[in-house]
Fold Dihydroneopterin aldolase/epimerase domain-containing protein.
Amino acid sequence: MQKIRIKNLPAYAKIGCYNWEKVITQKLLITVIISINVGAANINAPVVDYYEFSQDIKSFAQGCECNFLEEMAKKLLDYIMLNDKILHCYLQILKPSALDGVGEVSVIIEK
């Protein structure tokens, strides 16, 4: 088994429960660690194309309008796990601007 980590992938999404948050995009930083089974696959050919995978994650997050980080994390994790090559996924979504005076607020979920 191998792991692929994509750390702090920036995405801009409409996320939040306040009216003003529903009309602006806010920066999110997404970290994903996926476990894949290489098995008998050709070691020279990627099982998961991590560039394409990262772009899919970014596009999904940017198109997902959610009230809460927890809601977005659940939807994104379910989307990621649709790929049958992925055995396990650790997902962190960080919202840097969530609270004034706080370094970061994030949600972590895994499956």
Notes: Strands lie at 2-13, 26-36, 86-94, 106-110. The first strand starts at residue 2 and ends at 13.
